[in-house]
Amino acid sequence: MDLYSVKSKSIPQKTVIITIEILLLIFSYWILFQGGGAIILEKMGMVASNGNYQSRVIIFVFSTIVFIRMTFMMIYLLKRKIPWEESFTVPTAFALYFIGYALLVYNRTAPIDWVDYVGILVFILGSYLNTASELQRHFWKKRPENKGKLYTTGLFQHAMHINFFGDILWVAAYAMITRNYYSIAIPIFLFCLFAFWNIPALDKYLKGRYKEFDDYSAKTKKLIPFIY
Q1: What is the residue range of 184's domain?
Q2: SS3 27
Q3: Residues in Cβ contact with 75 at an 8 Å cutoff, skipping those fewer than 6 apart
Q4: Which of 45, 75, 110 is the last residue of a domain?
Q5: Residue 223: CA atoms inside 13 Å, Cβ hemisphere, count?
Q6: Which pTM was predicted?
Q7: What pLDDT digit, counting tens, does each position of 169-212 carry?
Q8: Are residues 34 and 84 in the same domain?
Q9: How far is it, in rounded angstroms, from Cα 77 to Cα 209?
Q10: Of 91, 110, 129, which marks where a domain is finished?
Q11: CB count, 10 Å around CB of 57?
Q12: C-beta pairs of 201-210 under 8 Å, 24+ apart in sequence
């Protein structure tokens, strides 16, 4: 996978991604709190309700945290080159989270209950696994004695791609808050994308680059600790 071997700051591409995601976050706010959701749903032939304000707040807080966290990771941790096409495919994915979940939660009328508290905990756990694992690897690789070595400790000792598992968790947390069955499709799609596309491609690259990969792969789960 040549994409992972080419290093670049990719400042123009990162600027485009951040700009689009800021616009998406503003649009999400309009949907959730400025009546935009009612306008869009009515245009789609659906009846908009007053909904549950607290659940909308939770969704927007999720999106704000995701934006801040992902922007930090992209600027500080991402070292590989970002192709120009990725400058638009990445924001497309975030449109599903920022815009899609804002619309899916809009008509929720159920009061806040234990499912929401579990959803918040799942979001926190997923965010932690995604960011903390990347930070652990980043600081480990900065040490000169680890140059050219495969990182297999820290959170990555529990699953080879535990950062991806974190992504699935925080996306699933969105779905839990919406109480909309259609929301489940997004984390399921993300799991399939990781399991059948990203992980096989990344594993192929790692296998060709690190001699330790086969041993690491043989004793470590791919994505979900203790399960898969």
Answers
A1: 113-228
A2: helix
A3: 14
A4: 110
A5: 19
A6: 0.93
A7: 999 999 999 999 999 999 999 999 999 999 999 999 999 999 99
A8: yes
A9: 20
A10: 110
A11: 13
A12: 201/1, 202/1, 202/4, 202/161, 203/160, 204/1, 205/1, 205/4, 205/5, 206/150, 209/5, 209/150, 210/149, 210/150
